[in-house]
Amino acid sequence: MEVRYTGTVETPPSFFTSRHTHRTHEQFDVRADDGSRFRVVDNVTIAPRVPARPGDRVTVQGELVHDRGRPPLVHWTHHDPRGRHPDGFVALGGRVYA
Q1: Given 3.40.190.170, 3.40.50.300, 2.40.50.140, 3.30.1330.60, which CATH number is that of 2-97?
Q2: β-strands 24-32, 2-9 pairing
């Protein structure tokens, strides 16, 4: 499901290599204005790194995924080079990272 949330960054970004794509991703947690919480997972091999810090306001658009026992996450927060997914983004400080 495609979503768009605006909220506040709660954790500093951390980086990992995906087991599935073997690409570098960043992740950080956001508390949306509606009170929900989710994790942003952004492929920084495709899109630029988002210099998010706790307390920053962001708007996130991407695909919402629920994984039992884990916080929901929003991924595909960047353009899809193959054109199979709607393009997402993270907006921070007037700049769009996609």
Answers
A1: 2.40.50.140
A2: antiparallel
